[in-house]
Amino acid sequence: MKIGYPCINRTIGCTSNATFRLASYAEEKLVKKIESNLDCVLRMLQFNVAHDILFFRISSDIIPFASHPICTFDWPTHFQDTLANIGRFIRKHSIRISMHPDQFVVLNSPDLLVVYNSFRELKYHCFLLDALDLPQTAKVQIHIGGVYGDKTKALNRFVATYNTLPKFIKKRVVIENDDRLYNLNDCLRVHEQTGVPVLFDVFHHKCNPTKDSVASGLKRAAATWKKKDGVPMIDYSAQEKGKRPGAHAEQINSGQFKKFLKQIHGVDCDIMLEIKDKEKSAIKAVKIISDFRL
DNA sequence: AGTTGTCAAGCTAGT
DNA sequence: ACTAGCTTGACAACT
């Protein structure tokens, strides 16, 4: 059971999200940004290992404009050595890696251009994980997409498009239940028709529930992960008090988290904390888990 | 040096 | 018909 946090570390003072404006695109700028982003991601991973945080979500912005047609730069070759070095570090310390492309990846859109752009975006994410030489356990999580007034048709479109994806993408894509449109049952239906693993988002499950308790929801989702996909990943967050429903908590609530661990007792999974203070809560969670095991 | 409008991309729900 | 919100951050153009 590994603990992780997404993309940003607020302690060490570097960012792996540095980008620039499309209007001022220049290859030289791109190279500089990628260089500093890759440098930072390794520093974050080193920080994490030092704190027993062995799960991490790499920012989609690490290679700016990677899926945009303007970017013809061969970054996998240019940064071959750096990428290999980061990949070695990840494998050496058995760090679990995920990525989560933005809301623009919509495989079930009726607009073919949107589907095509989504494909390019997925391709980029999988290229990166391949360039790091990571196993199939490194995943790219996406949502099912829009509803467009007819959920059944929209679900069928997702299945049809998913089935056309090349192997190097299929082996990494997992789908996540969202907080408004597609709940766990919808994801499981898609799984039945495609075999795609389902990443259980505990907080979204509370916003957009099925009849399942957290424990039974997790068990059903966990059963969709094959051995080669690795231990099931889950997303964990909680409601920030006083904010609109669905707003993520500022910091982890230790009592709540302990209660959650008790609920899911017996199911192994890697937990991504979608909590705003990032590594701070992750460090607390690592401590809680190690106490829990005693 | 500090402030602030804006940033590649989609969708839904609320006005 | 339009826009806030999503994971918010941070770029870059302006005082």
Give a written overview of the molecule.
The chain has 294 residues and is α/β, with parallel strands linked by helices. The protein has one domain: TIM Barrel (Alpha-Beta Barrel), CATH 3.20.20.150. 44% of the residues lie in helices and 11% in strands. The protein is built from eleven helices and eight strands. The protein has helices spanning 27-50, 75-78, 80-92, 112-131, 151-164, 167-170, 184-194, 202-207, 214-222, 254-263, 279-293, and strands at residues 3-6, 55-58, 96-99, 139-142, 173-176, 198-201, 233-236, 270-273. It has an eight-stranded parallel barrel, surrounded by five helices. Strand 7 (233-236), helix 10 (254-263) and strand 8 (270-273) form a beta-alpha-beta unit. The mean pLDDT is 92. The structure holds a DNA duplex (15 and 15 nucleotides).
Topology (SSEs and partners):
Layout: E1 3-6, H1 27-50, E2 55-58, H2 75-78, H3 80-92, E3 96-99, H4 112-131, E4 139-142, H5 151-164, H6 167-170, E5 173-176, H7 184-194, E6 198-201, H8 202-207, H9 214-222, E7 233-236, H10 254-263, E8 270-273, H11 279-293
Parallel strand pairs: 1-2, 1-8, 2-3, 3-4, 4-5, 5-6, 6-7, 7-8
Helix pairs in contact: 1-3, 5-7, 10-11
The chain binds a DNA duplex (15 and 15 nucleotides) through helix 4.
